[in-house]
């Protein structure tokens, strides 16, 4: 089944509200026997094609973050590169690609975070963006160091905040130990950020990707 047809099939099933539709079926199915359940599936077009459509969309959705990451980096390049700048490498795929950063040119090293920040309790996202900032900050180079994010409000609020490094780096004990060995007993994210905010730029990538 084509992707367009799969999406159409799922949209028809969920209607205006998937929650309401499922609640209606839950009430309807009470007391049903085998023939009634078969009729229900026919009524709602729940057959092999329907299940396969849902599975196809799920498979595609599982790759959507990689697609956004790779396309976002590539779309940004014509807008951020200077006239005398040359790409040395980009890291577009998921996982460990063997490359230090998402982008390195002859003039800059950069990491990208295409996160739709909500401003609530986002500890896992915060942990990830701190690690990226740390790796940029500690990288020995004379090139520009840039962390590209989608909107700077929430990332900067985090970096200027008082979340404990022991919390942020609870799964990165080597990084925590390295920071403490190098800078002494600094305790909060803002302490580390103040040391390096002049060397690592945090830039909103939104204007460069058409958002």
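^ Assign residues to that structure.
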């Amino acid at each position: 089944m084509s992707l367009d047809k799969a999406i159409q099939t799922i949209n028809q099933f969920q209607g205006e509200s998937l929650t309401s539709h499922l609640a209606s079926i839950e009430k309807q199915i009470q007391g049903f026997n085998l023939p009634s359940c078969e009729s229900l599936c026919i009524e709602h077009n729940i057959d092999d094609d329907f299940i396969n459509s849902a599975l196809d969309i799920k498979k595609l959705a599982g790759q959507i973050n990689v697609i956004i990451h790779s396309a976002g980096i590539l779309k940004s390049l014509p807008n951020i590169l200077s006239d005398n700048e040359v790409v040395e490498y980009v890291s577009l795929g998921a996982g460990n690609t063997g490359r230090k950063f998402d982008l390195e040119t002859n003039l800059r090293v950069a990491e990208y975070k295409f996160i739709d920040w909500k401003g609530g309790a986002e500890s896992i996202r915060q942990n990830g963006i701190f690690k990226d900032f740390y790796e940029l900050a500690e990288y020995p180079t004379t090139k520009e160091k840039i962390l590209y994010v989608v909107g700077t409000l929430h990332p900067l609020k985090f970096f200027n905040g008082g979340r404990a490094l022991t919390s942020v780096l609870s799964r990165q004990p080597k990084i925590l130990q390295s920071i403490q060995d190098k800078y002494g007993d600094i305790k909060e994210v803002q302490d580390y950020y103040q040391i390096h905010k002049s060397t690592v730029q945090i830039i909103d990538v939104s204007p460069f990707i058409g958002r």
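The chain is about 50% helix and 10% strand.
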